Every structure is written in C-alpha cells, then in structure tokens.
Amino acid sequence: MEVSTSPETTSDVVGALPCPRGSAARRAHLIAGRAADRCAPRRTAEHAARHRSGAPRIRRGAHRSARRWFELSDGVVNVTVTDRDSEQAEKVTARVLLAADGVHTSVRQQLHPDMSFHWEGTRMFRGTAVREPFLDGATMTLIDGEEEKRFLAYPISRDVENEGEELINWVAMVPEADSRTISGDDTKNEPTDPKDVVPTFRGWGFDWLDIEGLVAESTDVLRYPMTDREPLHSWGEGGVTFMGDAGHPMHRIGANGGSQAILDGQAIAEHLTGVDLRDGAAVDTALRAYEDERRPVTNDVVMANRKLNKTERSIANKTQDELKEFAESGEFEEMQTKYAKGELDEL
Questions:
Q1: pTM for this prediction
Q2: Sequence ranges of the chain with CATH classification 3.50.50.60
Q3: Which of 77, 89, 159, 252 could form a disulfide with 97 if both were Cys (CB 3.0 to 4.6 A apart)?
Q4: Span 27-45, mean pLDDT?
Q5: Are 315 and 143 in contact (CB under 8 A)?
Q6: Is residue 92 over pLDDT 60?
Q7: Is 124 exposed, middle or buried (0-12, 13-18, 19+ CB in 10 A)?
Q8: Percent of the chain with pLDDT over 90
Q9: CA 288, CA 267: separation in Å to the nearest integer?
Q10: Rounded CA separation 282/30 (Å)
Q11: Topology of 117-228 in CATH?
Q12: How far is it, in rounded angstroms, from Cα 302 to Cα 309?
C-alpha cells in the first residue's frame, strides 16, 4: 500500500502493509462471528495519514522492487516499488515509511540484516472445519495430552449457526525437535493434508468434542514451526519504523501478535498527530518516541510468551493424576491472571 498526496508520487506515508486475501484468509480472521481482521492496524495507520494530510490518494497493489528498495535522504524516504498489475517500477518519495509487512519484512531485513528465527522445537498445525458447536458454542478450549502435545479449539464464525453448525478453528502443537536457529525459508506456512495430522491425535476427544474427527474433516490445514525472533535494541531510523510482527514477532500465544500490532497502530497515530511531516527532524523525533514507548513493552511480551510456552509444555507433560491436582489447585488460573495483568516477571 502506498499513501500518496499528489500525482507526482510525493507522499506523506508509504506503508508496507499486507492484508489477508481470499476465502481462507477471511475465515481465519473471523472470531465468534465478528470481523477481527489483522488489517485493523493498517486502518489505524491510514487514519493517521489522513489526519495528517487531509485526503491523500491511496493506491494499493505495489511491492518492493529490489533487495535494497528504500533510501534515506534529506529528511525523506525514497522508495522504489513495482505495481503488481503492470509490473512497472516506480519511485516514490515519502516522509514516513511504515513497515508492517509481517515476520518476513523486507524493511527490517535492510536495516537489520540478521533475519534468523528462534524455533523452540514445536511444530504447529492449524485448520478449520464446520461442525456442531461444542459446550456453549462460544468457548475456547486448550487440551493437554501425552508427550507435551497441545490442542486448542474455538469457534470463529456463526455464519452457519442457522444450520446448527459453526466454523471451528483449531491449532495443534506437537514437540518435534530441540530448539535451534532456523532461516526464514524454514518458517513459512505449508499446506498439509489433514490425513497426515490425524494419527498424531488418534483417539483424542470427549463426548462434547471429537478432536480426531475435527482434524479429519478440516480444510485449509497449514503446517509451520512455532518461532519468534530475538528482541531488537532499536527499530528504525529517520522516517522509517516498524509496526506489528515486522518489529516484534512472538510465539503465537494469547493472541498477542495481533493485539500488540493494534496498540502499535494507536501509538504511532498519537505520536504523529500534530507533527509537521515536512520537518524531517520532527518526524524523526516522533518516530523515535513511538519506538521508545512500544519497543520495551513488546520486547517484554516476546520474552513472556517464551516463558508461558515453556510452562504450557511442562503442564502438558504431566500425568493424568498430576493434571487433576494442578487443575484443582487453582495454580493455572493464577498463572493466567498474572499474564493478563501484565505481571510477566511472576510467570
């Protein structure tokens, strides 16, 4: 996405801001029948751009043209992009380059060349299936099993509720290897046949949720590793900064990836409000203040998610008797309460 204010492609803000496309993406970003899509941070950023520059022309459908695709010069950012339809390269001069282009961000790669990932050893599978509601039809359930395996399931759409069914999203977490550093190519989502996942959860289920059947009847099943990156000590420079997974990829726990991105969008809008974007020094000051606010917080969440993931794996490794005792002790609820309150050092 580029936000331009004149035909001469001089712009206030250029954003590397992807958004999910297609029916599978739309289904994956519906939660309990409400659109909780991951484009909310993008819309927040667009609102900030509009607030700063009136009614800018917004053109979507462009991507970077080269490995080194932007340069800082005299208080502006010169960006080279290629139109996805025409494949014609175009140079855009912007005051701000906002990188919200996900974990495989090209902006971060240019500023921080080390693009390695930390894989903690868990392989994740995700899929959706239309099934009868379980329990009250609005419950998220986390199920622990032998060998540290975990299974998470929750409804994400009521579009079919008149038929007595709902769309259920599930995530399976299976320990596979020791933790190690991997490359970005090893982190990408891979389509997977649900038949290959079923044996791992053979016999799993309750009278209120048939886990094996849920997996077997699923569509859009993906396979990927649970990864994050080491927190950065700095993000951008000049008129360049990060938002969301581009700046702080984290373990997929507690919906914090999307939540923190939304908070990033709110913070950057607040810091840019009232700033004269023609003043390069003022822009730099505002963006560094935004980073100083958000970077420590998101770095803490990255590390807290690592700790919570280890705790969840240890819980899943308990015997049935130990799990029963743990559930009755109230320790799990106490742990979740501390996490929700941000008491991360207490986890």
A1: 0.79
A2: 2-114+230-305
A3: 77
A4: 41
A5: no
A6: yes
A7: buried
A8: 45
A9: 12
A10: 39
A11: D-Amino Acid Oxidase; Chain A, domain 2 (3.30.9)
A12: 11
